């Protein structure tokens, strides 16, 4: 009888302890993770409240504005000639141009409404370059170049598909070239030549050693450009045009291709390769140049 009562008391005590433990678990809430701080980075990059539109690069409201500062590092290969100096060869790599670049400004801008857009793309830079004179008279030369190329186009969206578009465009590219050339005469050959033609003058007077000139001109241009949205984040672009046709330059070409990423709905990064060719030869001013090089930019879209 005593043993039976002990068993009943033991069982009751065990149930009481278990009930107390369960009540204690319910009364102690489990810790919750701290709330994520509201910030521009979290709202727009980590977990954007308003995700990108299905096809980045298009504006469902019809209007859009894009601004893109960029850097372009071209090589400069070709021929220049001004005044009474002979034609001079230019052979400066992109690294050479960067080393001798005094300053430069590069910018693109575009405003669109529906299928139509107006865009501008230009740069203005100053740099120095070593030249290779033609002929036997001069042994070396150098030049300071000021260069501006500014394109103004009207674009029409000829193909407007879900994940890509193609624009046809026409417009003008305005050039400014300023050249200041200094050359050094080969004294022995210059003196012999001067004597051979009966001119008893100093070589530096018989043969000019410096010249400077500048020119403005404009080329009509026709071209195409496209963009392919590979994913919501990754995109590819391309562009090409031809111009001049004797109105300004005899002929001029421009082409570029790039790959880019959308950082947010309004910000993108882009890098690629750009090539320009210009052949201008009028009024004793020659500028025949190939300019290939890489470029990179950051775009802002509103």
Would you write up a description of this structure?
It is a single chain. This protein is of the alpha+beta class and 302 residues long. The protein has one domain: Beta Barrel (Lipocalin), CATH 2.40.128.90. Helix content is 18%, strand content 58%. Strands 1, 2, 3, 4, 5, 6, 7, 8, 9, 10, 11 and 12 form a twelve-stranded antiparallel sheet that branches. β5 and β6 form a beta hairpin. The N terminus is likely disordered. This is Outer membrane protein beta-barrel domain-containing protein. Keywords: Signal.
Any key phrases for this structure?
signal, Outer membrane protein beta-barrel domain-containing protein, disordered N terminus, 302 residues, Lipocalin, alpha+beta, twelve-stranded antiparallel sheet, single chain
Report a brief summary of the structure.
The protein has 302 residues and is of the alpha+beta class.
Question: Which helices and strands appear, and what pairs or packs with what?
Answer:
Elements: H1 2-27, H2 40-46, E1 63-74, E2 76-82, E3 88-92, H3 94-99, E4 101-113, E5 116-133, E6 138-160, E7 164-185, H4 187-196, H5 203-206, E8 210-229, E9 234-243, E10 251-262, E11 267-282, E12 285-301
């Amino acid at each position: 009888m005593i043993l039976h009562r002990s068993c009943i008391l033991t069982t009751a005590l065990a149930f009481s302890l278990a009930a107390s433990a369960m009540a204690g678990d319910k009364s102690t809430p489990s810790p919750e993770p701290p709330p994520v701080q509201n910030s521009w980075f979290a709202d727009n990059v980590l977990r954007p409240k308003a995700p990108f539109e299905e096809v980045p690069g298009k504006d469902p409201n019809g209007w859009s504005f894009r601004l893109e500062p960029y850097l372009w590092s071209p090589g400069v290969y070709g021929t220049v000639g001004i005044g009474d100096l002979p034609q001079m060869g230019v052979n400066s790599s992109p690294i050479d141009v960067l080393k001798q670049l005094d300053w430069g400004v590069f910018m693109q801008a575009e405003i669109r409404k529906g299928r139509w857009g107006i865009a501008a793309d230009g740069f203005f830079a100053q740099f120095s370059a070593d030249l290779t004179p033609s002929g036997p008279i001069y042994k070396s030369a150098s030049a300071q170049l000021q260069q501006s190329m500014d394109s103004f186009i009207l674009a029409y969206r000829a193909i407007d598909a879900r994940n890509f578009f193609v624009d046809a465009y026409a417009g003008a590219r305005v050039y400014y070239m300023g050249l200041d050339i200094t050359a050094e005469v080969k004294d022995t050959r210059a003196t012999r030549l001067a004597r051979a033609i009966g001119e008893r003058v100093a070589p530096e007077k018989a043969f000019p050693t410096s010249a400077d000139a500048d020119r403005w001109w404009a080329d009509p241009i026709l071209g195409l450009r496209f963009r392919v949205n590979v994913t919501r984040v990754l995109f590819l672009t391309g562009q090409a045009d031809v111009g001049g046709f004797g109105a300004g330059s005899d002929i001029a070409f421009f082409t570029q291709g790039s790959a880019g990423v959308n950082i947010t709905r309004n910000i993108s990064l882009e890098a690629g390769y750009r090539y320009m060719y210009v052949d201008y030869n009028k009024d004793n001013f020659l500028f025949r140049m190939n300019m290939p090089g890489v470029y990179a930019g950051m775009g802002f879209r509103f």
